[in-house]
């Protein structure tokens, strides 16, 4: 061995130490990554509970006499979330809702907790994009806050048909969009099994420059149908809408009744989902089509689905609903027996 040997040995030690440290770091990063993936897969809702525990007064409003039970459950959930075992114990949305089931009402399928939706309305309309950007740069864009929903809380139990009434702009559509997760609220939490929900609403997702046939595919895919599903149900959809001779025409040439017939037919082409949300889909088309569509909706209502039904028609609410919620300027004004709520609402409209 020559004089440089001690140096070589020292360098080898350094290299080995670096290799061990590097290896340990890679393993640590890998384990962390696996943990994050696990958490992301199963723990979406833990984050909601962890970051937004339900305020006591809201919990009381939601669970009434069962508040004690729900609070205990929440605390257990939080304890689990904080313990090292929580990834193995975290419940699915269904399990979570089942655990919140109360003896009086049964299984909870939708839980809306303290939901607020705030929109920003530009109070001065610039005449061009250029003017808008100039305003923006000068920090002169002035917004007005509009609360479409303000601290709204309620539960829906399995098998209920809950009507939602209220004057124009009271927040009904915003609420059902949030429940179906098409919109994210500014604050608050909605717990619902998204895989079981279908929102039927008319007129969204149509392109007036496309033909009726193209719109069946466009609107169908927005609603969540696969191409295969639309292929298989296309004839049925056209037949129900009674538009066989018009499918190659652009819908900008259609009357509003024809468009709503097509929209209704697409929206109701699938079997009734477990949780069905209907936003003003009952008064569609002419008298004949209205009867036909009502019959189809009734079949869906009777199939055991849990339903949220937005309607301006008191008749429809009274005929179909087991409970009614009255929204007024984004707040729940009244909730209860459809007859009582409709009576109170009707009085105010006179
Ligand atoms: N994307 C949006 N941007 C700004 N404001 C909105 C938006 N969507 C809804 N709003 C406002 O929120 C309020 C509630 O609207 P929403 O459509 O939920 O009411 P609604 O009760 O369904 O009304 P209608 O009975 O007329 O359908 C309204 O004042 C509306 O102008």
Automatic annotation (TrEMBL):
Q: Which domain of life is it from?
A: Bacteria
GO CC annotations on file = membrane
Q: Do the record's keywords include Transmembrane?
A: yes
Membrane-crossing residue ranges in chain numbering: 12-34
Ranges for domain ABC transporter come to: 134-348
Does the record carry Transit peptide as a key word?
Answer: no
- Give GO terms: molecular function aspect only: ABC-type transporter activity; ATP binding; ATP hydrolysis activity
Ordered alphabetically, the record's keywords are: ATP-binding, Membrane, Nucleotide-binding, Transmembrane, Transmembrane helix, Transport
The record's listing under Gene3D superfamilies reads: P-loop containing nucleotide triphosphate hydrolases
Family note: Belongs to the ABC transporter superfamily.
Q: Which PANTHER family match?
A: TEICHOIC ACIDS EXPORT ATP-BINDING PROTEIN TAGH
Q: What protein is this chain from?
A: ABC-2 type transport system ATP-binding protein
């Amino acid at each position: 061995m020559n004089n440089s040997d001690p140096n070589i040995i020292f360098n080898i030690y350094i290299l080995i130490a670096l290799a061990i440290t590097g290896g340990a770091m890679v393993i640590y990063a890998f384990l962390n990554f696996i943990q994050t993936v696990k958490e992301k897969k199963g723990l979406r809702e833990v984050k909601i509970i962890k970051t937004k525990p339900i305020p006591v007064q809201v919990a009381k409003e939601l669970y009434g006499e069962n508040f004690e039970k729900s609070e205990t459950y929440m605390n257990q959930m939080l304890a689990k979330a904080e313990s090292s075992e929580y990834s193995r114990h975290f419940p699915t949305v269904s399990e979570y809702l089942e655990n919140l089931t109360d003896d009086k009402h049964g299984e909870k399928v939708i839980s809306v907790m303290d939901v607020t939706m705030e929109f920003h309305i530009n109070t001065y309309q610039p005449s061009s994009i250029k003017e808008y950007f100039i305003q923006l740069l000068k920090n002169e864009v002035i917004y007005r806050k509009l609360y479409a929903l303000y601290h709204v809380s309620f539960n829906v139990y399995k098998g209920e048909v809950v009507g939602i009434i209220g004057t124009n702009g009271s927040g009904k559509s915003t609420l059902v969009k949030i429940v179906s997760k098409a919109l994210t609220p500014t604050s608050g939490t909605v717990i619902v099994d998204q895989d079981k929900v279908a929102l039927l609403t008319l007129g969204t997702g149509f392109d007036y420059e496309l033909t009726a046939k193209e719109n069946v595919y466009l609107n169908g895919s927005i609603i969540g149908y696969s191409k295969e599903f639309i292929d298989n149900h296309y004839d049925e959809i056209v037949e129900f809408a009674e538009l066989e001779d018009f499918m190659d025409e652009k819908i900008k040439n259609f009357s509003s009744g024809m468009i709503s017939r097509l929209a209704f037919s697409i929206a109701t082409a699938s079997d009734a989902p477990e949780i069905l949300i209907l936003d003003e889909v009952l008064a569609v088309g002419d008298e004949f089509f209205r009867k036909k569509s009502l019959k189809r909706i009734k079949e869906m209502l009777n199939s055991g689905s849990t339903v949220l039904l937005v309607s301006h028609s008191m008749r429809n609410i009274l005929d179909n609903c087991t409970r009614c919620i009255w929204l007024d300027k984004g707040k729940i004004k009244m909730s209860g027996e459809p007859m009582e709520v409709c009576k109170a609402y009707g009085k105010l409209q006179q």
